[in-house]
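Q: Could you write out the predicted structure for this multi-component system? I'm mainly interested in how the pieces pack against one another.
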Amino acid sequence: MTVYSKKKSQDNMDIISVAIVEDNHDIRTAMELLINGSDGYACIGAFNNAETAVEQIPSLLPNVVLMDFNLPGGMNGIECIARLKGEYPDMHFMMLTVYEDDDKIFQALEAGASGYILKKTPPSELLSAIRDLHEGGSPMSSQIARRVVAYFQKQAKPNPALEALTSREKEILDQLSKGFLYKEIASNLFISIETVRRHVHNIYEKLHVRSRTDAVNKYYNR
Amino acid sequence: MTVYSKKKSQDNMDIISVAIVEDNHDIRTAMELLINGSDGYACIGAFNNAETAVEQIPSLLPNVVLMDFNLPGGMNGIECIARLKGEYPDMHFMMLTVYEDDDKIFQALEAGASGYILKKTPPSELLSAIRDLHEGGSPMSSQIARRVVAYFQKQAKPNPALEALTSREKEILDQLSKGFLYKEIASNLFISIETVRRHVHNIYEKLHVRSRTDAVNKYYNR
DNA sequence: TGTAAGATAACATAAACGTGGTATAATTAC
DNA sequence: GTAATTATACCACGTTTATGTTATCTTACA
């Protein structure tokens, strides 16, 4: 059996294959030229719309895809990533954007983008970001990182309405959230089922809800 | 009324006040010397344990706190951040760590840390990370950013068990998750309550659960 | 054209939940 | 040292949810 080695650049690094999805002709061409003109990188596809990209990329299987947000036609960059990422989980996607404060950051990340950089990023940095992404990093500016961290922290912090609960009530609510029956909660906490009822009743009053599901939704800040 | 201007460095930048919480004497002293020896930065406190830090930092009110993970005594760096961040939400915390692959990243972020860098970070980078943090960024390596993004994506993607549900069943489950009564769901979807029952029953069978709360927990990937 | 899957609907029964009232220790706060 | 809070407990009643069985109609598809 013959083992073929991967293409190597002059520096003996693996060549990173890149595809570009960007409707602006000038930007697309400039990136294509940059990538093909740089040792260790090869642009193996460039598309001006998401539909063609979704159709062609499965036969090209690039290591990295650079994706614009807004694309002509029915599909935007986020949906394009979602479709491809579902089929090819190991493919790495880098979102290209004009603004750092775009709320679509989160949609892009949820869809499967791992890197997130500005279009105005200097050529050398774009190349190193591509390599970084290929090697398992998530290149992004610290401004964008802060927004991701803030989102993370927001999800983590509990609803302030829960502070009105006593510690025992929080304990009961936690059991409720896990789906235990009253009798199971009673046995888990070594109290009578009637006491569980009473606690639940008090919890509902404090949270202004009338069902377990509503209480649990408040517990999880929804 | 006299207005006092903030201290300015030679470059006319505001001076960033920094506190350090780190039990290793050599590292702590080295950082203190670096910060005090650099124009635009001032180390206004250095502590070798969390308890003293929690006690003293409120009277110092530094712009930025550099925090070690492991500290002697009962309190670790994460709890120290949580306590202080609760009282001073505008204070910025930078986690100092030896390893990038620490699972405590997420605990630190939840507690309120915004930056996350390695102890071996070169002096000049440490200083720019401090400034970056002070100015609203979240300095972190792209390796750490990837882990945060991955965590984010994991939370976002729905439980694959839900794919066994028909679209109508997903609709019902969504209504269940919002806490609607069967009769409300029936009226919202213009079907009889008996049909709601049937759908719920089928959903439970497919998800292998026996209660609304368990179904909703699966719906939200918990 | 027949069959499988999905959405619709009804009925019966039992289990679980939600609401109201009442009460008693124990602890905490003032 | 008294008042307020918290955790505990019981009962009664009505509502909601969960399970089991059966049946009709439509759509997809082989």
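A: Regarding packing and overall arrangement: The longest strand of chain B covers residues 41-47.
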